[in-house]
Amino acid sequence: MLKVQVTSPGEIAVVDAERPTPAPGEALVRVRYAGICGSDLQTFTGNQPFASYPRVPGHEWSGEITEVNGDSGDLRAGQLVTGNPYFNCGECYSCRRGLVNCCESNQTMGVHRDGSFQEYITMPVDRLYPADGLDPKHAAMVEPFSIGWHAMNRARVTERDRVLVLGAGAIGMLTMVSALARGAEVHIADIVPERLAIARELGASSAVDLTATTVAELMSEATGGDGFDVVGEATGLPVSFLNAIEAAAFGGRIALIGNGKREVSFNQSMLIRKELDVLGSRNSLDAFAPLIELLQRGEVDISPILTAVVPAFATVDAMRDLLEHAELNVKVLVEF
Questions:
Q1: Where's the Enoyl reductase (ER) domain (predicted)?
Q2: Distance from the CA of 148 to the CA of which of 50, 70, 233, 300 falls in 20 to 30 A?
Q3: What is the pLDDT of residues 109-127, one digit of tens each?
């Protein structure tokens, strides 16, 4: 079978490999589509601190079950599925409390263990979610959708809220869609016009270019100066964190989604003065099934976020293109 392997930082190739064999309790899955995520690019470039090599990237995927070793439950051969790529230990304090997304020994596909950039993978059956009736491309986007969905769960978004999302990458836009699905009024800000155009297509109340408008001006225009009930920070940049504090209403909530790589200095009294809830949001929890149902009912449309589909043999070129032209791509899928 074909697989994409990062042999060392900066070195990536499409190679032949043996098809894996499912262990008891596992299914063999023929991958249909795998999404390229920022963490995959970090693994490729050597900027992912938890990656070891050689490594097959990929944690966003859809596929068809080929066989199951043992009790298949409701699963069947030929069925379209996606899966939770975050493997928790089941023993740490977080896991014992049911917060498996916060597992202290989490292992993520494509980082700590081989991922979905290959024709066949094996997965524990209890980590698979049937996606009958979905476009396989959309099924491969359930995992990134779950990140934004979990963040808006953490921020307790309702139809009464005015929400600002900072960052219009794939996760930012799926965070926006998650808030829209709850009936909130949602605004989004970025510095890339092409991405903002997609956000408008998805239903943003406004999509603001922060190279031409300040956060203070955005807040004044969108809320009359009241501030946003919820701000989702989806870039990880220090300036974006400070913008989130400025944009939030007194008594508001900030959901931190983007992984920061640099320290940020701020006066903690800003949080106290506004009595802000600042919520970290890691991975997702209990999100796959409700999102699949949401997509099956046709209540949301995530197709505008998909900007390219490339064949497996072109994965290396696609990853290099994403590194050089990130502004032109939001979500790129690899077809296996």
A1: 7-334
A2: 50
A3: 999 999 999 999 999 999 9
